[in-house]
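User: Quick sanity check before I run a bigger batch. Here is a single chain. Can you write out its predicted 3D structure?
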Amino acid sequence: KISKIKGNNEKAAVELGWTRVEGAEKYRVERGTSSATIPACSYTFEGEYNTEYTFKVYAIPTDTAKHSTSAATEVKVKTDAIITLATPNVKATPSKNTITLSWTAVENAAYYTISVGTEMPVVVEGTEYTFEGEYENDYTFNVVAVPADEVKYAASEAAVVTVTIEAEPVDPYIYLLLEDDTWKGFTTVEA
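Assistant: Done. Predicted structure follows.
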């Protein structure tokens, strides 16, 4: 019987290794209904992320007339979880009726999607987006980092930013100062 078996996971791959059994010519590795017969004391399996696998390993003797296949040694290995990208840290800068969103690049992100309210998302490959809106309105933006490798990584949670565009600025007016229909000068008044 195989006495020392070790399972190791590297992302979605599972690597099994064990010490050689004296008199064994090969080994059978079973996972569910599938199996493989190998001459070495190691086995690698490419699995799915965030999944637990159970393996049974048997030593098959060189001389099957004198020795029988060993009892199974079982090992359970769980692969790494899918890594969710970090949520972008978004800064919003309004200027008149324009809003500029900016953020630091998120590691492993290929691009970002930005949606405003219920509008369809816009794809942005950089770390800045400019939006032109209407005065006296609130706008809610959702910024999501999207990975290039969607097998290993998941898109981030949305960074949600709400920005208000204030009333349209009004130019000051210049008035004539009159007193008893006599001109006294000019004055500037903000509207």
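The chain has a mean pLDDT of 85.

User: Great, the batch can go ahead then.
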